[in-house]
Structure formats: C-alpha cells, structure tokens
DNA sequence: TTCTCTACTGTGAACGCTCACAGAGCATCA
DNA sequence: TGATGCTCTGTGAGCGTTCACAGTAGAGAA
C-alpha cells in the first residue's frame, strides 16, 4: 500500500528481537555485544546465533544516546581547499586514516573548514559531542579551530608538529630535521657544494625544521651558509617554480637544490628546464614527501619518504588512546632517503 | 576531583534547559527547531534567545533514534584505492560534495570499500540505516555493492552513467559523447586527419561513449575509421603512455590523439616526447576532464572540462530529493572545450 | 449566547539501547 | 550449617528527542 518508490526498507530487528529469539533478556544480549564478560558460553552462543539469524545490527544512535559517545571521528582540514586538491599526500593520509578507523568500526566524518562560516559550524558540531575526537590537518600556525577544540576538551591529534609548543596537544609527525639532514648529506656525497634550498613556510615547524637540518649539515661539513641560496615557498607547485627561479637569479652557480616538498620540486624542475639546466648533470634536485609527484616528475625525484601510512595509523592509535582517557602524546617517525634519477 | 586529562567536557544543555530558560515547553522548542510552524512569534523569539544563551545544539542521536533518519550521507568509493590517490578529480568531487552537504548541515561519511571484507562491513553499515543515502563513485560495471544497496532500498546516486541501464538508479554524469564530439571536431578544425584515440575501459559507459563520439564525428566528416588508431586504457597515467606508444607503432603517421582522460594524456605526452614527436607541431593532443593534470602538463593540455562542481551539487540535490521520497533521476550535464597549448 | 474553527501550547509515550541494581544459583570456607 | 564470595541473569530506569494527542484561548459565524 504505502510501499515507497525507494524500495521500502522494513523496520530492522532490535535487541529485543534478538533477545526473544535467543531466549534471553536484553541485558544479556547487550553484554554479548559489548565484550561478552559475565556471559555463560551457552548464552553467548545462543545470542550469536540469534544475531546471525535476525541479521541484527546495533542501532548506533540509541547506543550513543546513552553512552554519550558517538563512536565516530572527524577528519578536519583547515588548510585552504586548493592544497587539498593539489597535494597527493592528503589523499594518502585521508585514505589511510579512514581504513585504520574502519578496523575499529569507527566511521570517519570529513570536515572541510574553508570559510569562516564553515569553521564556526564545524566547531559547534564537534564541541556538541557529535564526534568523539578529531584528526586535524593544519600545518599553519596559530590555528584558532585547534585552539578552540583543545579548550573544549575535545580529543585531538594533529598531523605534523604544531607551532605553539607550549600547548599540550597530541601530534604525529615525520622527523623533518633528520630527513633534511639525510638529503643534504646525500647531495654533499654527490660532490655538490653550492646547494640551494626552497624551504616550506617559515611559520610552520616543517618549514623551520627542514631548513634547520639543511643548515646543520652544511655547517658540519664546513660549507658556508649563503643566504642567497635560501628562499621559502608555500608547498605549492607554483611557489617551487618561482623559488627556484629566484635562486638561479641570485646564485647562478648553484649545483644542487633541496626543495621541501615534491610538488614544489616539480615546479623547480620546470624552472631549471626553462633555464636550460640539465638535471641531474648541472643541478641535482632533492624533494621531500615521496608522493606520487616524485615518481611522476621527469626525471624521477630523489626524495625523503614520509611514512604516511604509519603516520595515519599512529594518529588513529593516539587519538583512540586519548578518547580512552590517556594523556596526549607526541610521536615522531623516522624518514627514509629514496634515491632516484634527479641527483 | 574526577576532572579527566582530556579537559573535562561538561554536560551540554538539552532541549529541556532551553524550554525552562524560555519559559515554554519541550514541544514548543522542538517545533521551533523544526521549521517553526504553529509557533507564536513571541515564543519563537524567546526560544531563539534561550538557544543563543545556553549554547544549545540539538543532540542528533536522540533525534535520529526517533525519526529513523540519521541526517548523514555516505560517500562510497568502490574503485581501487590507487585511483583515488592518483586522480585529482576524486578530490574535487569529494570536496565539493562535502561542501554541498554541509550547506544542508549534513555530515559526510567517507567509506572506502577496497577489500571484500570492507565491502561487506560497509554494506551492513549502510543497510542498517546508519546513513540516509549514498553518493557512489564506481565507474566500473556490475558493481555488486551498488546492486545490493539498490535492492535494500537505500537512496543512491551514482557519479557517472552506470553500465546496466535496466536498473532504475539515479546518476549524474557529464555528456561524454558530446564532449568527445567537440574535441574531435576541434582536432579536425586544426587540419588533423589521422586522429588516434586512447579510450577509457570499454566496460564503462564513459569509455564507450567517448569512443562513440569520436567515431561519430569522424564518420560525419568523411574520415575513415582506422582500427589501428584506436586503443583503450584504464584512465591511469601509465596506461596512457603505453597506449600512445602502441598507437605510434601501429600508425606512425598519426597527427593527433584524443586521450580519454588528462592523466592518460600526461602519459601520452611522455610517450610522444620519448618518440621525438613535438606537441602540438607534429601531434596534437587532446585530453578529457580538465583536472589539474591538464594545466600541469607540458605543454598544457587542451581538454574537455567536466563540471565537477556542478556534478557534485547535482548529486547531492538528487540524493536529498530521493531521501525525501522522490523518484530516482538521471542528470546529464554539458561539457566544455578548453583550448590550451597542446593542439 | 453558543458553537465551530483556527492558532497555539503542553504532556506522555515512545525510539533502542546501556547501565546499575537486585537477585539467583553454585562453590568454597570457616 | 551458614556466611561469603563468585558468576551469571533479568528488570526498570533513563538518555534527549519527536510525535500524536488533548486541550486552551480567542475570533468569527449562527
């Protein structure tokens, strides 16, 4: 009669139906559902059979209403959206986080805070308790959203080291400084001495730390730091191109350049090509990330691999621990030099 | 005393608190929350003031428990994950869908069905009613997940035309055939006659339709269809490179090639470069999608713009309509020729 | 006046689950 | 033997909403 055109979903079985089917009470079914402690093996078995038979799936809304947990997690991106489109790393991160959460049966809610309006709406949504915790991607410093969430006591794990170190916030990051050291040592081992650097934004720890590693190794090796060999970009391809062009203008004798992201390195390759420099014969190029941009570039980029899969799983691990009541934690993961054609 | 280290969230205000504050009953508050019909202006005003004062946010779990709706939507990707990493279009689609839903205050749950196991879990999650509807990205034919969801009566909108046309399922797609026609006409207008094609997979409507458009225009123009000028790829960069190399081997006199995706076109450019052909002097290259891959390519690609932002907003519109009880609908959106350096 | 209709408001009962509690059965120990 | 523990089970209450229903007040018609 009232069969709707959408196919007419029928009322799904409740815990009551399962209890009746198994010949036990709601309480027992609930106990089986939540770990099965204090349940006799026979009841356990009967309930599981009843669940299979009825096709029962727990109603998360009802559960959340009473537990106060939502059993869901937000993935919040406060970067400008274009970066999301452009940077292949976000995809890996997002995908790996989704999968890591799925293993715990926790859905991921994607939240994009582009405009001020969205930012406000999302903050309200989160602080209202509609997610248990937040995975935050925001490399820029002084993110007001992060601060607000922290104040509201929302479990939070940031991807990448946050700028204000005073605040006790969880984060998972690759060892930027050490990665940079490896790359510059590698360039030195190739006989390069006039090594340029296109760093990331200097209001981000990633930008600062990679530059610090670069300077550290050069100083160790007795190579003079030349400020004309240093510029900074914003991780976009275009800024890599512009930055490298500037380096070439300021220091025409540059024989290598360490670029703080693969995407910027792609841009740098374009600038070098336009300037008629051969890579790696005239100028070696080193990237950072080991994203698909590195393998797609011509020539393929030597780069520093950031273990995004491990970063993702650690972010999820730390977040769930924090939701479980543990203290915030910082995790730094090792990077790896990946040699390809550009050096 | 029991202040937890997470900062101690306090109990959020309920509809009851708002009612007390406003001096009205729960029912009145609820009515204000849901459209405000049959509420006096004075009560309306009092309730809104109370909401602002208490910082009340509706508890979605409680609401969902009684309405049966979850007020959330799943974004389901059944493609192999690598495509997700590689193809910039997915980002645009995902991001635009998230934003379009956000405008309706509906969160998006990201669901990646890579393995068989995940597929099963996700299907159960969806059919249990934990989302009101699903935005599905799956260009390949005979997707068992789609079929299962359709049978379960879950509102569903697919991105791209589905293969089995018999089944009544909503979809939003660009006009592939017409886009292909525009591109081939454009190549003809550049004086090209030996026009090759690297199509998409021929078990997808996109693959079939773009090839059909290609053949149609050539036939109209009186140009003979030469099967040696036609190969098919899988939309990946690598397959574009391999496909174009094969075309060059089979038909060395090829003077243009229409490649069914920008990513494949990037590969084709690489193959042409390696073969020593200049683009566009010796061979014109046309892509499809107008993704960032098109502007990043050297030379920048002439391509067919798919209106992904409109596709996204239409997908959301159609899905919400279907959740609201309307019949499934198909939407075909026009494409646009974008001329750049490669032709 | 009385009756009807409309605009508005309050109340109790759900929704499906978890949790605290009480209590039953059984073994162990003084 | 009774007290004490342990394992296991059922029951009622309640989470924060919405919804159906009943009911009130005022305007207009009979």
UniProtKB/TrEMBL annotation, chains A, B:
Keyword Kinase: no
Bilayer-spanning residue ranges: none
UniProt GO molecular function: DNA-binding transcription factor activity; transcription cis-regulatory region binding
Domain HTH lacI-type as annotated: residue spans: 13-67
Keywords: DNA-binding, Transcription, Transcription regulation
PROSITE patterns, per database record: HTH_LACI_1, HTH_LACI_2
One Pfam family of this chain: LacI
CDD domains for this protein: HTH_LacI, PBP1_LacI_sugar_binding-like
Protein name according to UniProt: LacI family transcriptional regulator
Species name: Streptomyces guryensis
């Amino acid at each position: 009669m009232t069969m709707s055109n959408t196919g007419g979903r029928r009322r799904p079985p409740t815990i009551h139906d399962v209890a009746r089917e198994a010949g036990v009470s709601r309480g027992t079914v609930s106990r089986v559902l939540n770990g099965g402690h204090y349940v006799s093996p026979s009841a356990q078995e009967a309930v599981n059979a009843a669940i299979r038979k009825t096709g029962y799936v727990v109603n998360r809304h009802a559960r959340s209403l009473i537990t106060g947990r939502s059993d869901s997690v937000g993935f919040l991106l406060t970067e400008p959206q274009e970066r999301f489109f452009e940077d292949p790393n976000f995809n890996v991160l997002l995908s790996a986080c989704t999968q890591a959460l799925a293993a715990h049966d926790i859905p991921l809610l994607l939240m994009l805070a582009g405009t001020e309006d969205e930012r406000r709406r999302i903050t309200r949504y989160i602080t209202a308790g509609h997610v248990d915790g937040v995975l935050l991607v925001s490399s820029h410093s002084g993110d007001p959203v992060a601060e607000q969430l922290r104040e509201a006591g929302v479990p939070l794990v940031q991807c990448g080291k946050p700028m204000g170190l005073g605040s006790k916030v969880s984060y998972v990051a690759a060892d930027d400084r050490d990665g940079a050291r490896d790359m510059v040592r590698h360039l030195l081992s190739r006989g390069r001495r006039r090594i340029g650097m296109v760093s990331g934004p200097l209001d981000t720890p990633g930008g600062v730390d990679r530059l610090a590693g670069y300077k550290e190794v050069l100083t160790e090796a007795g190579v003079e730091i030349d400020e004309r060999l240093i510029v900074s970009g914003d991780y976009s391809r275009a800024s890599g191109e512009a930055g490298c062009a500037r380096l070439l203008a300021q220091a025409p004798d540059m024989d290598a350049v360490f670029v703080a992201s693969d995407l910027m390195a792609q841009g740098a390759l374009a600038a070098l090509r336009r300037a008629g420099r051969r890579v790696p014969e005239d100028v070696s190029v080193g990237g950072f990330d080991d994203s698909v941009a590195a393998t797609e570039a011509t020539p393929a980029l030597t780069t520093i691999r950031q273990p995004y899969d491990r970063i993702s799983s650690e972010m999820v691990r730390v977040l769930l621990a924090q939701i479980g009541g543990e203290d915030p934690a910082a995790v730094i993961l090792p990077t790896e030099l990946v040699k390809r054609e550009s050096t």
